[in-house]
Protein: ATP-dependent RNA helicase
Organism: Linnemannia schmuckeri
Amino acid sequence: MFNIRRFDLEAETTQESTTTPTITSTNDRLAKLNARLNKNKPPTPTTTTTTTDTNTSQDSIPKDTTKPHQYKKDRDSKGTNEISWEKRAKELKDSDLVPNDVRLAMKAEAEAKAKAEKEAKKIPFAAAVAAAAAAAQKKEDRDEDMKDIEEEEDEDKKDQDGKDDQDKDQKEEEDRPALHLEGVDRFESEAAADAALAELAALVPLPTFETKEITALEKERAKSMGIPDWLAHPTLIEPDESNNRPITSKEFGFSERLIKQCRKAGIEECFAVQTAVIPVLMRARHLGDIRRAPGDLCVSAPTGSGKTLAYVLPIIEILSQRVVTRLRALVVLPTRDLCIQVKETFETFVKGTDLKIATSTGQNSFAHEQTILVGESHSNPNSPRVLGGHSRVDILITTPGRLIDHIKSTPNFTLQHLRFLVIDEADRLLNQSFQDWLFHILNAIHPSPERKLLGVDGSETIQVKRDYLGFPIHDAIAPGFLSSFFQLPESDVEDPKALSVQKLLFSATLTRNPAKIASLQLSDPQYVAVQEGGQDGDEKQKYTTPAGLTEHMIVCETSEKPLMVLHLLHHLQVRSALCFTKSVESAHRLYKLIQLYEKIRTTTPMEAPVVKEAGKDKKEVAKKAKKDSRNPDESGSEESSSDNDSDSDSEDESNSSSSSSSEDEEDEDEDDEETSDVEMEQAETSTPAAMDVDTTISPATDAIVVAEFSSDLPKSKRQSILRAFNNGEIHLLICSDLISRGMDLSPVSCVINYDSPVYMKKYIHRVGRTARAGKTGTAYSLVEMQEARHFKEMISKAGHWDKIGRINVKSQEVKDLVPGYTKALAGLKDVLVSSSRAGRKGSSRRSFK
Ligand SMILES: Nc1ncnc2c1ncn2[C@@H]1O[C@H](COP(=O)(O)OP(=O)(O)OP(=O)(O)O)[C@@H](O)[C@H]1O
């Protein structure tokens, strides 16, 4: 009964496992194959089983089941469930039918020994994978027929003797350090080994990248900071195009279906980070087995370098083999908008598979999300909990808070079948201690009775799911406690297994904080960093900006900052820009101000002369403005304001620019005087009602279309704003840091740091919204006088100062903007009051920072 059950459950894992290997060869030949694959390791003792089986792993089940009682665990003298392996091994040493439990114990011993050897040699996972692929490639070059094995061994021998130095590849392989090829040397049937080899042979060797050489000093420093060796010793990849590879390249091993979807999405090549990461993930599938974790991966690569696809593509490709829907990939992201974006990316490439994707972000009701995740069963208190849980989705993209809610409160929701745990924007998420989220996820991945599920305060914060007898429901695939109770025949499904989950961390600014990294409980991790070479020092290595990014700073007074934004918009023709402020409130104020300015500008043809003509009769001024607008060449420096001259709506910009070009140069004191004049003018003429306009201004004018984006807006509004921005309908999107990370808004050609960031990480993420995917972009940081020193220090420390150009904006350069600006400033208060009364009714205004 258990064999059948196990077969079914394992068949659920992948289609590969349902194929029927035919064992045709002798153990000697198998041993030779294993020995060839792993020359430095003696052949693993194998059983004399020659039965044709339906499942590779069933080879490990004893075939003689006539005496099931013989295969039960012995109790030791204390009556515990310990197994006297040694005794059993001695008894059955010479027996042909070595029972499963003994064989597994022997195997475990051999594995422990191999592991110790491996530890001593410290071969990085990537090297092992590369060597495995190289071995497979070599096999493809030769004859795959087993008859050739002996010839190959002869060749190997010749090479070892130094007699055949023409076979360079062969020699290179021999020169490589001794490797313990996990998974490969465990094949217990020739067919299984051949199948895996054939798959590996289809892949070309992993691309080789430079491994960072660390100096003794750096090593010492890393050690003193508690930074583990693997983190201080990344595999480095230059972020240049020479590391791109065509998607059809064999090193990725993509299926035709996926290649087709990539092409449809306009992806012909994989970027550097993808070239480095995807082959490693794809190969983990072949090398992994149930007793070995696939090896975790931390990836640091610049903004816009393509980290999302580096995990989306392999996850889809690997999971597309699954038969039964289980929750196998969990992607954790810091914001809802990012979850939606990543879901859309998955949906683009998942076409042609039946993988199901869902998000859980709290945007929908909890009950609704529960139904999506586990079906209707959650709503019925009498519906039984299914051992091992239940899932209607394969891939879940979620924010940490909502995920914890489901772990705690959704019956049958389980993370026990996870194959991938992706933590994107990892450093940001690791900074969030919200609900102890990481602790709960790690526990939910691998709950066990021994594990203490205690929160920081020592209380049991989350219950392991238990059955009615109080036994922990730890996994439907391995219901070990049942057999120990009822003395049922055992199978190897009871044996301890390594986690099959692979943790993947991604960020443009990955933390190297040892405590934070330790909290992830990474297993056999490796660190891949895409960064410019030739830099040294910790900080410098952490931050690489996109190659196409041009950076500027504008030092100015606090009060001049809005004017600088207008300068960028009107004089430098900045469009498709994101403007970051320090808070929601700040974003809202600036948004209203710019909007007001645009309204004034587009309804007041000649602004600059307003100052000089402020005292004149308005009608007369308006008339003159209109006349000049028809004859731009004649436009002079003497104009006045007209507040509501609708005819002039479409004429303003050429007029204002021509008037500004003819402005006399004036010093700042005079500008100040003008300001006060305009304020008076504004006080006389502006009415909030006239100025309160919609987020998107009438397209009938050439006004700069400005919008704000913040957490205060409802989801639908946020999505529609992002859509409009992506469609080029919004020229300036003023936002807080809600979208400073991860968001991929393709048209962004410029980033304005309205409030300059205090931390380098924030700077990197903000400016990284532009110059993505190999495009160019510009960033302007408005730095207040008193902040200039800190800003310079921050940028210099990151080795970045040389890249930032300084722009001095003289007062006369913005002179033409001053009248409208001061006018808008004067009207701002009223606008804010009226907008908070009208538009924000019912909205819980808060600062999210
Ligand atoms: N191989 C590729 N070919 C063409 N475009 C690509 C490729 N890979 C990614 N892109 C595009 O590059 C853009 C940036 O990718 P992505 O959002 O994954 O960057 P990222 O490294 O995650 O950036 P961030 O650190 O800001 O989150 C996206 O528009 C994506 O579609």
Q: What stands out?
A: The chain has a mean pLDDT of 68. DSSP finds 32 helices and 18 strands in the chain.
